[in-house]
Amino acid sequence: MKIIVISPVRNEEEFLPITIKCMLKQTILPIKWIIVNDGSTDNTEKIIKKYQQKFNFISYLRLQDRGYRKPGQGVVEAFYAGFNSIRYLDFDIVAKFDGDLDFPPETLEKITHSFIKDPKLGITGGTRYERITSNGEFKKLRTPKGYVGGVNKFYRKKCFEDMGGLIKRAGWDGVDIIRAQARGWKTGEIESLKIFHLVPTGTSKGEGLKRACEKYGDVSYYMGGYFWYFILRVLGRSMERKNLFIGLYMLKGYFRSKSQGLGREPERFRHHLRNVQRQNTLYWIKLASKSFVKTIS
Q: Do the beta carbons of residue 6 and residue 34 sit within 8 Å?
């Protein structure tokens, strides 16, 4: 299967060399890797050009610096700048892939085999590991069943077309999952494929934990799922990071969007999302029950 990888990057001079070196070691290379420089002001451009000159499958696209980060929306706009430049190519899989990842040589090979093995698989990626702090231990992120994190997301071309591509707003990496599932596609991470996200969520320059959590609240309102499910996520994230302010910021983002009367996804989408949330809740209850039984036995 032919893979195209698109990597929107902005001020990634610290970790981009790691990502590039990992890509060069892949047992299966993409037919094209477009690195979109979203207005970086550091040495990101020099790093990309250094490798572009040596490897033909690497393409470089530079966007003008807008002067600020646009969490969610900016990354999708950069992705489409890259995607529109290669629409003429024949491909089977397109990936949105961050520039701050460390991943094993068999990553693209495992992705390819997963799509070949299951023709109904629409979206997949590796299992994301992150540090809670910049120098802490890498731990597997707890995510809902079927979810694939936005940092490494591989789409079957037909699925990408069926769901109408990506929305240009924060929450795109949750909306795409629900839209794909509603159209009969399977989604989910590959458990055996570990992807290490080198920049902890909410710590990027220009964003910060407060803004990231408020964004999560806004996204939850926009998607239109159960409020009780959102509260469970608020409690879960606060407990996971042992930080009460995380939950408060999430609530602030939710109610601010609600008070502003912002638009939401259509009812068909929301109905499917609520079904998924009920299933996820039962899934987590079963896992917690098994863990409890092991503890007392």
A: yes
Structure tokens at 125: 């990626």
54-82: per-residue pLDDT in tens?
Answer: 999 999 999 988 766 666 788 999 999 99
Cβ–Cβ under 8 Å, residues 190 and 106: no
Residue 121 to residue 113: CA distance in whole angstroms: 11
Start-end of H helices in the chain: 16-24, 44-52, 73-84, 107-117, 157-162, 172-182, 208-223, 227-240, 244-259, 267-296
Helix, strand or coil for residue 126? Answer: strand
**Measured in whole angstroms, how far is the alpha carbon of residue 49 from the centre of its chain?**
25
Tell me: pLDDT of 3 over 90. Answer: yes
Cα separation, 102 vs 43, whole angstroms:
19
Name the percent of the chain in helix, strand, coil, to the closest 5. Answer: 45, 20, 35
**How far is Cα 193 from Cα 121, in angstroms, rounded to an integer?**
16
Cβ neighbours of residue 95 closer than 8 Å, sequence gap 6 or more = 3, 4, 5, 6, 30, 111, 125, 152, 153, 154, 155
